[in-house]
Specification:
By secondary structure, the chain is mainly alpha-helical. It contains 19 helices and six strands. It has a two-stranded antiparallel sheet. Helix 9 links the parallel strand 3 and strand 4. The structure holds arginine.
Length: 495
């Protein structure tokens, strides 16, 4: 399912008003930090500086972080109970305002942190101005963004698990249906369609592993690192960490405010995931082309052509393939932002959020579309079976027979088989249709019962090695995945 638009990951950014004043015109300085400023920023300064147009998506995480911080300040005796309660209620009220679309995000207040803090002071007065004690926007944004990425990981992970379950269910259905297996996109050996689908389940399982690793390393709380050096107030960082579900506080304040490894790791994991999705997308595009004709997508997952009435285009698969560009682009973009930044925080790091938001949105959309296509596709099993046996796809089975029965060294068996394929090609027939005398001319030991190994079913049934394509293996693997995933997701496989 796609990430909720109004869920923990926030609204897609709304357009904020462009700064009205002409470049260079004085405006009032930012009320949150304008003490030493006589005049306000140039319009263009405000425009380049503001992040509220996109970081408003962090509003839930910012409120959560502020509530935890206020509670800790109270426990540490830095805030009194009255102020702490006013702050908590004020933050809740602001949450309700944002949720209801009644909150006015101001470009002049730069970012989500100052928009919320200014509104808090507006609502509750003096107490609101005490909230920023013992913290800085630097540790605040690092905390908010970690919380956001953690929520995003959980959402993407659930979607990957759902896709794996859909793939495993289709694999179970097609555990014994042969298709041509390819290397170099040349017919290689028959495999089962179920085996092919389960290959993607394995890839996606590793993607989940990478997301889980990222989450584990990310789960330390920067709050309390303040601007860069820590704080002189007697704060309890373990308390804020635990209130926010982090495993522990970070251990170096400079690192904590200037590190974005967690975002980079997340984007790396998403990039590899999207490469996997794009490979499956590419296969879907190929499989539903007329020359292949392996699958059919319904009207729900195809589009028509404005000029060619016969067309059914797999646009969702093509766009999933294409969106990999955005996701990998986000990773390369953020790596490039971070490269060469001196410690500690630098404003460059404000550019960390958009790539992460965009990559998350793209990945969530692709996962949902891919899940839809996997459930929707109808396998044309007769067509796949017919093609599975063409192109001398069982030549290796003949070579293996020569090794097993006639005890030929494999290299010699390969040679004999190659010559037989050459003869079959010259006669325009399949290997099984070569006259016995022709076969015996290449090796006198070949007997009529060899032909049995050349069928597609015999070929796939013989591949019983661990991880091989034998239908019994595939059925067992599919069942194992379905059971595991149903336990994790609570979902049921339906095909
Ligand atoms: N909007 C800023 C960001 O996203 C918040 C931190 C600003 N810190 C500062 N010292 N200017 O990075």
């Amino acid at each position: 399912m796609p990430l909720e638009e109004d869920g923990a990951l926030g609204q897609p950014p709304r357009q904020v008003e462009a700064v009205a004043a002409p470049a260079g015109a004085p405006a009032v300085a930012n009320a949150q930090w304008g003490g030493r400023f006589a005049a306000g920023p140039a319009a263009i300064m405000q425009e380049i500086n503001a992040s509220i147009g996109f970081d408003q998506r962090l509003w839930r995480q910012d409120l959560r972080g502020s509530k935890a911080h206020a509670r800790m300040l109270e426990q540490a005796g830095i805030l009194d109970a009255v102020d702490a309660a006013a702050i908590r209620d004020g933050l809740d009220a602001i949450g309700a305002e944002i949720e209801a679309g009644r909150f006015v995000f101001e470009t002049a207040l730069e970012d989500i942190h100052m928009n919320i803090e200014a509104r808090l002071s507006e609502r509750i007065g003096e107490a609101g101005k005490r909230l920023h004690t013992a913290r800085s926007r630097n540790d605040q944004v690092a905390t908010d963004f970690r919380l956001w990425v953690r929520d995003a990981i959980d959402g993407i992970d659930a979607q990957v698990a759902a896709l794996m379950l859909s793939l495993a269910a289709r694999a179970q259905e097609h555990a014994a249906d042969p298709m041509p297996g390819f290397t170099h996109l040349q017919t290689a050996q028959p495999v089962t369609f179920g085996h092919h689908l389960l290959a993607y389940v394995e890839m996606l399982a590793r993607d989940r592993g990478r997301l889980a690793d990222t989450r584990r390393r990310l789960n330390e709380c920067p709050l309390g690192s303040a601007a860069l050096a820590g704080t002189s107030f007697p704060i309890d960082r373990s308390l804020t960490a635990s209130l926010l579900g982090f495993d522990r506080p970070t251990q170096n304040s400079l690192d904590a405010v200037s590190d974005r490894d967690f975002a980079l790791e997340y984007l790396s994991a998403l990039s590899i995931l999207s490469v996997h999705l794009s490979r499956l997308a590419e296969e879907i595009v190929t499989w539903c082309s007329a020359p292949f004709g392996f699958i059919r997508l319904s009207d729900a997952f195809t589009t028509g052509s404005s000029i060619m009435p016969q067309k059914r285009n797999p646009d969702a698969a093509e766009l999933t393939r294409a969106k990999t560009g955005r996701i990998v682009g986000a990773l390369v973009g953020l790596l490039t932002v971070m490269k060469g930044l001196p410690l500690a925080y630098a404003k460059d790091m404000q550019e960390d959020k958009e790539p992460v938001f965009q990559a998350t949105d793209a990945a969530a959309l692709c996962l949902a579309a891919m899940d839809g296509m996997v459930r929707d596709l109808v396998a044309r099993t007769d067509r796949m079976r017919a093609l599975a046996g063409s192109g001398y796809s069982t030549a290796t089975d003949l070579a293996d027979w020569l090794v097993r029965v006639l005890k030929l060294p494999f290299r010699d068996a390969h040679h004999v088989t190659g010559r037989l394929v050459g003869r079959a090609e010259a006669l325009g027939v399949e290997l099984a249709d070569l006259p016995l005398e022709t076969m015996q001319a290449e090796h006198p030991g070949i007997t009529a019962d060899m032909v049995a190994v050349l069928t597609v079913d015999a070929s796939i049934a013989s591949r019983t090695s661990e991880g091989g394509t034998a239908p019994a293996n595939v059925a067992a693997q599919a069942a194992r995945w379905i059971e595991r995933l149903q336990n994790q997701t609570g979902a049921t496989a339906c095909t």
